[in-house]
Design goal:
Blueprint (H helix, E strand, L loop, with lengths): L9 E8 L3 H11 L3 E5 L3 E5 L5 E6 L13 E9 L2 H13 L6 E4 L3 E7 L5 E7 L7 E2 L2 E2 L8 H8 L12 E8 L3 H11 L3 E6 L3 E5 L7 E4 L15 E9 L2 H14 L3 E4 L2 E5 L5 E6 L1
Helix pairs in contact: 2-3
Keywords: Metal-binding
Organism: Salipaludibacillus keqinensis
Protein name: Glyoxalase
């Protein structure tokens, strides 16, 4: 089953605002092993396979640090194809003495967490086979259990790390919002995602094609949290990919009926969720 290709609707690219472009390029290239597709004094595009953009870095003229307790990026998540690749990257980070912020077994996946130099949250994970995911009444069972780090590192033993796997994709994005109900209307009734899991009244996980989640939404920054300043570090936009022009047009019509902002820039359409998070709507 395809979760990050047609016919699914999925996340493909994330654009970040950073304070120091050289510092950020160094981290994403040397620590995570991404390839540089484009680079200027204020801009860079990075890829895992040498052709598909995954992360876009932009350095505005007057960038400021993101204030706490605001909406925006919680983390973006790079999905590796297997445990061996996760172990290789984990060992590389350990060898570099790069600080990790957490590690979890989510039942559907195994993940490690860290931040880039601008404190943008990053999850690096690999999925368990979908046949092992447990579903009940349309909701998938997820948890936050201790990670078997030793087992993952053992999988990579004897394998040389030469960069992140070219099969790496943007697995999902997790963002902070001001109100879960408003966000559910926008992302589900508007963008066309389905609810697949809830953590109480503070977090919501949504997807298409029965993935465990393409988007996570939480109010952990506080209910009614304000958006960050326009030029602060953090997420600039993230890309949602639709399988056809017809499917995207249906979504654009739904968004307009909901009263959401829809802006066309050249061949691309952008919208903004109720918490100020900017979304780029494209056709894959």
């Amino acid at each position: 089953m395809s979760f990050h290709d047609q016919p699914a609707t999925y996340i493909r690219e994330v654009s970040l605002l950073v304070k120091n472009i050289e510092r950020s390029i160094s981290f994403y290239h040397e620590s995570l092993g991404l390839q540089i597709l484009e680079q200027t004094d204020q801009y860079a595009v990075l890829s895992a396979n040498g052709s598909t953009p995954l992360i876009r870095l932009e350095m505005p003229d007057y960038v400021s640090e993101k204030q706490p307790r605001t909406t925006g990026l919680y983390h973006f998540a790079l999905l590796l194809p297997n445990r061996t690749e996760l172990g290789k990257l984990l060992q590389h980070l350990i060898d570099q003495r790069y600080p990790l912020q957490g590690a979890s077994d989510h039942l559907v996946s195994e993940a490690v967490y860290l931040s880039d130099p601008d404190n943008n949250g990053i999850e690096i994970y690999t999925d368990r086979p979908p046949s092992e995911w447990e579903w009940e009444d349309g909701h998938v069972k997820m948890s936050v259990d201790p990670l078997d780090g030793d087992g993952i590192l053992a999988e990579a033993k004897g394998h040389e790390w030469t960069g992140i796997s070219p099969q790496t994709v943007m697995g999902h994005i997790h963002i902070q919002v001001a109100n879960l109900n408003d966000s559910q209307i926008f992302y589900c009734d508007g963008l066309g995602f389905d609810v697949v899991s809830r953590f109480g009244n503070q977090a919501l996980f949504i997807s298409t094609n029965s993935y465990h989640h393409h988007i996570g939404l939480n109010t952990w920054a506080g209910t009614d949290a304000l958006p960050p300043a326009k030029n602060s570090t953090g997420i600039h936009w993230f890309e949602v990919v639709y399988p056809s022009l017809k499917k995207r047009q249906i979504v654009l019509d739904r968004l307009k009926k909901l009263g959401a902002v829809v802006e066309q820039i050249e061949d691309y359409f952008f919208t903004v969720d109720p918490s100020g998070n900017r979304v780029k709507l494209v056709v894959g």
